[in-house]
């Protein structure tokens, strides 16, 4: 009997958007992506992704780079 493959583990982490949580540049806490990518208007290289830190509440924007979009960012789970 062949094993079925599942993609369920990936549904919360599409490869077409920046990381949803990053390390805050100010305090080292967790900063959350404020605007999840719109399926009809996904992030593209050169866009600005807004984040807010849950610890210091600082708001900052990170420029989206190609590395964010191809799923190879080091803070992204890989299979
Ligand atoms: Zn912070």
Would you mind describing this structure in some detail?
The chain starts with 20 loop residues before the first strand and ends in a 10-residue tail after the last helix. The protein has 1 helix and 4 strands. The radius of gyration is 14 Å and the shape is extended. By secondary structure, it is mostly beta strands. β3 and β4 form a beta hairpin. A 4-stranded antiparallel sheet has the order 1-2-3-4, with no helix packed on it. The longest helix has 4 residues. The protein has one domain. Zinc ion (ZN) binds next to loops.
Helical content (DSSP H or I, runs of 4+): under 10%
Count of runs of 4 or more consecutive helical residues: 1
Give the overall form. extended
Count of structural domains: 1
- Overall pLDDT: 78
Q: Give me the count of strands.
A: 4
Largest sheet: 4 strands, antiparallel
- The class by helix and strand makeup works out as mainly beta
Q: Kindly estimate the percentage of residues that lie in beta strands according to DSSP.
A: 15-25%
End-to-end gap: 23 Å
User: What is the radius of gyration?
Assistant: 14 Å
Q: Can you list the ligands bound to this structure? A: zinc ion
Low-pLDDT runs of 5+ residues are 7-14
Order of helices and strands: EEEEH
Strand order of the largest sheet: 1-2-3-4
Which characteristics define this entry?
four-stranded antiparallel sheet, 1 helix, mainly beta, binds zinc ion, 79 residues, 4 strands, extended, single chain
């Amino acid at each position: 009997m062949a094993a079925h493959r599942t993609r369920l583990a990936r549904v919360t982490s599409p490869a077409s958007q920046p990381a949803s949580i990053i390390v805050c540049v100010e305090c080292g806490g967790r900063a959350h992506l404020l605007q999840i990518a719109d399926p009809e208007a996904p992030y593209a290289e050169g866009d600005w992704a807004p984040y807010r830190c849950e610890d210091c509440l600082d708001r900052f924007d990170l420029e989206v780079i190609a590395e964010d979009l191809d799923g190879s960012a080091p803070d992204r789970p890989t299979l």
